[in-house]
Design goal:
Nuclear Transport Factor 2, Chain: A, Penicillin-binding protein 2a (Domain 2), Beta-lactamase, 3 domains, 5-stranded mixed sheet, 25 strands, elongated
Length: 550
């Protein structure tokens, strides 16, 4: 290219205008209405409403607000606008068309064709504003919106298919959970198609399985006037009914659990499950509020001796092995004692368990087991593993102890050991069946889905050594027949373990009262907060419950 030719091209492209000591560059002119159309639709697609305003001739003062409101009113999660055609300019005006593709709530796609007008203003092509730019039939004062209609929610039912909803039982209402208007935070967390104010599960199963129960709302895209009255309907999308949720809760067992707590004047809980499957049959809490069965975290006290006894059996003992049960022992400078300083001398392990000898288990844990072994056996009973059974639940914690003194306390459920009634019912279930199973309140496939969604894997069943099952089937019945719960009127065939768990401080700290156990293919745990001894406060609740279940 010759120098003169190059200079001519450059001069055609730009002009340099000097002003004093400075300079600025003027572009050659616009790319015609097609270029404006492409810039306008590209800005629309990315939601750059300020750029759209700049590309519009005589835009309304609230244009950016109108554009943002249209997207919000439609509930669009994505939008794509492309130029379809641009006509040949004539007399400073031109016409064109665009194609719109919007993704609405629920992943629904809505496409339509729109029109654009162009006018030359100040030497540049700009969009000639009209409400029809937003949609071909729109008039001033009108707007697009998407109205939704939620279907009837799926029903939450007992295992037999009868409805749990509307139950007068506070515990059942707690399991089901209320439904209320979604907060802005909840709607954002749930994502499309939810918006603030939509009916959503606030707690319990209604919250946990919200999307299954709620279904998908039907949707109608409409033109409405300034007062919100429908002018015309543009597009209809069908909805999808919510799906029901059948739980593992047994209506008869649930009723018995609730009745067993009716006379208790302190916070208390009772939970029952089926050892052979892990299915939760009843959850009862008194009073309401916190679901203590699932979320309460308590020291288990002597109910943990089921786990320590299992570890001793795994180490070679059996129910008849002679063990010491002195009134007190000293471990690392701390004195441990039995209830009321009872002393039984040397007795079979079965009797030490039945009489709940703290000194026996503290001494044997330190001398025969050690932390590693007891922790391993505790994990076989579900400790330190997540409970993934359909509703949020705390995990049972058996942490490492800092020294032998702390470990001795942990061996009979004190120190840093924490658990929930649900966890301890699963311990009793493992003793009954010989296999620990993660407890669940919904079918296994739904529990697994919830686990996968939360990035967790359900804990697989843990089969106990047959010798452990044999020993526990001797130890736990002895508690009821001749041990700490002998004065309680239990139905024949009941096996269990009392627990009196200290919490707080002082020389005589308050205690939670526990009783866990099983009868046939039914395992359970009962706790009374600050109730005193397990034999006096919790065991009678369990006996009443078993008597009602039959």
């Amino acid at each position: 290219m010759t120098r003169s030719r190059w200079m001519a091209v450059a001069a055609a492209a730009v002009a340099v205008v000097l002003v004093g000591a400075g300079a600025f560059w003027l572009l050659r002119g616009d790319d015609g209405p097609k270029g404006t159309a492409e810039k306008f639709t590209a800005a629309w697609s990315r939601g750059d409403y300020a750029a759209m305003r700049d590309l519009t001739a005589v835009p309304p003062v609230d244009l950016t607000t109108r554009l943002a409101k249209q997207r919000d009113d439609l509930g669009a999660t994505a939008q794509k606008y492309t130029v379809a055609s641009v006509g040949k300019p004539k007399g400073g005006e031109a016409g064109g068309a665009y194609s719109a593709e919007l993704t609405l709530a629920g992943g629904r796609t809505w496409s339509y064709d729109g029109t654009l007008g162009f006018t030359k203003s100040g030497g540049e092509w700009k969009v000639d504003w009209s409400p029809t730019v937003l949609y071909p039939t729109l008039k001033e004062g009108q707007r697009l919106t998407a109205s939704r209609s939620w279907p009837t929610r799926g029903q939450i039912s007992y295992a037999d298919g009868s409805s749990m909803e509307g139950s007068p039982s506070g515990s059942v209402q707690q399991i089901v959970g209320p439904v209320g208007p979604a907060t802005d935070e909840a709607a954002k967390k749930l994502g499309a198609p939810y918006r603030k104010g939509d009916p959503v599960g606030v707690d319990g199963l209604s919250k946990q399985y919200e999307k299954r129960l709620a279904g998908t709302p039907a949707m109608t895209v409409q033109v409405v006037d300034a007062s919100g009255r429908t002018v015309s309907t543009i597009k209809r999308f069908g909805g999808q009914d919510g799906r029901p949720l059948r739980t593992t809760i047994d209506a008869r067992v649930q009723k018995a659990a609730g009745q067993a707590l009716s006379g208790v004047d302190k916070p208390a809980s009772l939970v029952a499950l089926r050892p052979s499957t892990g299915e939760i049959l009843a959850i009862a809490n008194k009073p309401g509020g916190l679901n203590r069965v699932l979320l309460g975290h308590y020291p288990p006290g002597s109910t943990f001796k089921v786990v320590t006894a299992a570890a001793l059996v795994a180490g070679g003992m059996d129910a008849g092995t002679p063990v010491p049960c002195p009134a007190t022992i000293n471990v690392g400078g701390r004195q441990f004692k039995n209830y009321k300083y009872e002393s039984f001398g040397t007795i079979p392990l079965r009797d030490a368990f039945a009489h709940s000898c703290n000194t026996t288990f503290a001494q044997l844990a330190v001398e025969k087991l050690g932390q590693k072994k007891l922790t391993s056996v505790a994990q076989q009973f579900g400790f330190n593993a997540p409970i993934v059974g359909g509703l949020p639940a705390v995990r049972a914690a058996f942490p490492g102890a800092k020294d032998d003194t702390a470990f001795a306390a942990e061996s009979f459920g004190q120190g840093e050991v924490l658990t929930s009634p649900l966890n301890m019912a699963s311990v009793a279930g493992a003793a009954a069946d010989g296999t620990w199973r993660t407890p669940r309140i919904v079918p296994a496939d739904l529990a697994s889905q919830a686990a996968d969604a939360g990035g967790r894997k359900p804990e697989p069943p843990h089969r106990l050594d047959p010798a452990i099952k044999t020993a526990l089937h001797s130890l736990m019945p002895a508690v009821v027949s001749e041990g700490t719960a002998r004065v309680v009127n239990f139905p024949s065939g009941t096996a269990g373990k009392t627990g009196t768990a200290e919490f707080g401080g002082g020389d005589n700290p308050p205690t939670h009262a526990w009783f866990i156990g099983y009868r046939s293919d039914l395992a359970f745990a009962a706790i009374v907060e600050g109730g005193g001894t397990g034999a006096e406060a919790a065991a009678p609740i369990a006996a009443t419950f078993l008597g009602s279940v039959g």
